[in-house]
């Protein structure tokens, strides 16, 4: 994805975000639009107020006051983030490292404020100068106090620092300084037109705004609510920035820029959700724009505490938002923008565009249907599998790409995903081999059916290649009992038919049954010898076609040794399938772990001996 392309896809999205800003911003007050929540949505809730006392124009340091963040005080703390290396816009900052934050952000923010005063804020300039020298003179002492006070804050909680002035009339905050109010607004507007990094102005006195399409004065060229950085490293503008191109592609007037900024803030506050730990912005797009505010109000419930009531027994909280979208009217479509905050930058990892509610509905009604089938009733069918096989720190990209394909109804590469599913099953198998039980990790049986359930789901949604005809998928039963059938062969054949289209070849049936008899043999070994020597023959489940053909007679001979003749019919069936498939000719090694494991783990689903028969 190159730079130019980024702009094009941004164009439309930016317009939607501007619309959100337009209908949601409650005030025209630029200050209220540009200040930010220093608590970062509750993550930096502990405030360390440095109290400066003023008596008759003399300033002195009084102490530290520990407070809890209060949103009603937002305008008083007056926070707006600056660059990560420089100061913030005012002397209110989130604490990263207490020493660095105090020395490099808080103390240094005063000279910048003083410089900004100019002639306009003469009185305030004097006060700020007074505070600044108190901070400098007492910096070591204040730092000690800050550190001491910080020990009262639980380790996991974040803090922020601000400065307050006390005199006989009461307590004044950073927000009470007019100069800082102006600085916040000016800084925000400056960012729209001036690049600090490249020391370059991108501005025109008059031009057509690309968002409202009107000719306006004061046109900005750097209104970037999302940095140009995608998961695709090619798209990262590292070395330079093409100003001419930026200018030509995205000229924005002040009005639109401000709306965009409030839209972005609204996204941060109300339309940021997570799906299995991955953050995304949900951007609704309406055919009839006038309903936007009503629609947005609707989504507030998604972030409320009541949302927790809607959990269902599987993955309620993860599925809740997307499920909710499935219930919306089809006059809305959605963009899902998966993001990652990286210091000050916001990386766009994946953009899913224009998804209709009916697609979400289809996805979740399919999941519900599968979960309601008796076969899957006690099994886990959920997106959790993708998060397990594609952990965030290692294969996040694959996770997102697969989610994208499912939501966007694009085909999934069966061979690609099976490699990971197999590994997942094999991993669980290895743990079971060693009798390892893990609370966090799936057992062999859970892993096997988690994979099968998800494959069933993907197949149901027709997300694998090359299936044009409608097929009937309804795996209703759970136990296939000989008393309902005329032969053992029929017991299995019925299952194969019901598990349509998963047993579409004789070779898959042969592998499944081989797994089944292998498990029976292991059980018999265990009940007779209290150990399972045959396990060693399964090669840690890394079986190929040759191994399967080798295993069949080996298992049969062992069972004969144990004088267990119950399975003769099953072996006949296996032979038929092997012959029919021309010696498993069309079998892919990729399919062996999952089919073999299903056979092993479904041994209790088949009753092939009449009661009281020996095993
Ligand atoms: Zn405009």
Short description:
The chain is an alpha+beta fold and about 625 residues long.
Please explain how this structure is put together:
The chain contains 21 helices and 16 strands. With 615 residues, the protein is an alpha+beta fold. It has four domains: 3-34 and 192-264, no CATH class; 46-186, no CATH class; 271-424, no CATH class; 425-607, no CATH class. Strands 1, 2, 3, 4 and 5 form a five-stranded mixed sheet that branches. Strand 6 (194-195) and strand 7 form a beta hairpin. The chain starts with a helix and ends in an 8-residue tail after the last strand. 33% of the residues are buried. Bound molecules: zinc ion (ZN). The site of zinc ion has 8 residues, from strand 10 and helix 9.
- The value of Rg in angstroms is 32 Å
Are there runs of 5+ residues with pLDDT below 50, and where?
1-9, 228-240, 305-315
- Strand content is 15-25%
Number of domains: 4
3D shape? elongated
The residue fraction in helices comes out at 40-55%
Q: How many strands, what sense, and barrel or not for the largest sheet?
A: 5 strands, mixed
Category from helices, strands and their pairing: alpha+beta
Bound molecules: zinc ion
Termini separation: 62 Å
Total beta strand runs: 16
Helix run count: 21
Mean pLDDT: 88
Please name the defining characteristics of this protein.
615 residues; alpha+beta; binds zinc ion; elongated; 4-stranded antiparallel beta sheet
């Amino acid at each position: 994805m190159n730079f130019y392309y980024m702009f094009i896809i941004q164009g439309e999205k930016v317009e939607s975000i501007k619309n959100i800003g337009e209908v949601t911003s409650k005030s025209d007050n630029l200050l209220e639009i540009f200040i930010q929540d220093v608590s970062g949505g509750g993550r930096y809730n502990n405030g360390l107020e440095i109290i400066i006392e003023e008596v008759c124009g003399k300033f002195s340091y009084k102490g530290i006051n520990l407070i809890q963040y209060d949103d009603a005080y937002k305008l008083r703390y007056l926070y707006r983030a600056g660059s990560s290396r420089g100061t913030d816009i005012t002397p209110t900052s989130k604490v990263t490292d207490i020493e660095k934050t105090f020395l490099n952000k808080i103390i240094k923010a005063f000279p910048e404020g003083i410089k900004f005063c100019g002639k306009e804020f003469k009185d305030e300039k004097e006060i700020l100068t007074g505070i600044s020298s108190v901070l400098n003179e007492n910096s070591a002492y204040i730092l000690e106090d800050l550190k001491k006070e910080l020990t009262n804050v639980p380790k996991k909680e974040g803090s922020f620092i601000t400065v307050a002035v006390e005199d006989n009339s009461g307590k004044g905050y950073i927000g009470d300084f007019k100069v800082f109010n102006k600085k916040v607004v000016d800084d925000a507007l400056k960012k729209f037109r001036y690049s600090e990094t490249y020391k370059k102005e991108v501005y025109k006195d008059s031009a057509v705004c690309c968002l409202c399409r009107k000719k306006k004065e004061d046109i900005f060229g750097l209104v970037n609510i999302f940095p140009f950085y995608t998961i695709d490293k090619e798209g990262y503008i590292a070395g330079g920035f093409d100003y001419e191109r930026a200018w030509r592609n995205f000229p924005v007037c002040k009005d639109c820029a401000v709306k965009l900024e409030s839209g972005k803030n609204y996204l941060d506050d109300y339309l940021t959700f997570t799906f299995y730990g991955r953050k995304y912005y949900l951007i609704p797009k309406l055919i009839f724009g006038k309903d936007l505010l009503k629609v947005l109000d609707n989504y507030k419930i998604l972030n409320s505490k009541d949302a927790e009531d809607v959990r269902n027994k599987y993955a309620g909280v993860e599925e809740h938002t997307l499920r909710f979208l499935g219930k919306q009217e089809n006059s809305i479509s959605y963009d899902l923008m998966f993001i990652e905050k990286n210091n000050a930058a916001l990386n766009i990892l994946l953009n899913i565009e224009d998804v209709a509610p009916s697609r979400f509905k289809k996805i979740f009604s399919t999941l519900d249907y599968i979960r309601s089938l008796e076969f899957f009733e006690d099994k886990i069918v959920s997106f959790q599998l993708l998060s397990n096989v594609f952990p965030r720190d290692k294969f996040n990209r694959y996770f997102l790409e697969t989610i994208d394909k499912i939501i966007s109804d694009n085909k999934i590469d069966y061979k690609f995903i099976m490699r990971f599913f197999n590994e997942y099953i094999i991993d669980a198998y290895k743990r079971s081999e060693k009798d390892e039980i893990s609370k966090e990790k799936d057992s062999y049986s859970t892993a096997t059916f988690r994979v099968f359930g998800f494959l069933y789901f993907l197949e149901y949604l027709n997300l694998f290649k090359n299936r044009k005809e409608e097929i009937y998928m309804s795996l209703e039963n759970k136990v296939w009992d000989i008393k309902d059938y005329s032969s053992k062969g029929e017991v299995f054949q019925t299952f194969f038919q019901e598990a349509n289209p998963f047993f579409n070849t004789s070779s898959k049936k042969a592998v499944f049954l081989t797994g089944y008899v292998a498990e029976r043999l292991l059980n018999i070994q265990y009940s007779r010898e209290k150990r399972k020597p045959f396990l060693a023959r399964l090669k840690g489940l890394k079986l190929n076609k040759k191994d399967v053909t080798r295993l069949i007679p080996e298992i049969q001979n062992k069972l004969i040794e144990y004088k267990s003749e119950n399975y003769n019919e099953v072996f006949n069936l296996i032979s038929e399938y092997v012959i029919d498939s021309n010696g498993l000719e069309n079998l892919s090694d990729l399919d062996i772990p999952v089919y073999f494991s299903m056979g092993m783990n479904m041994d209790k689903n088949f009753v092939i001996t009449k009661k009281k028969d020996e095993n």
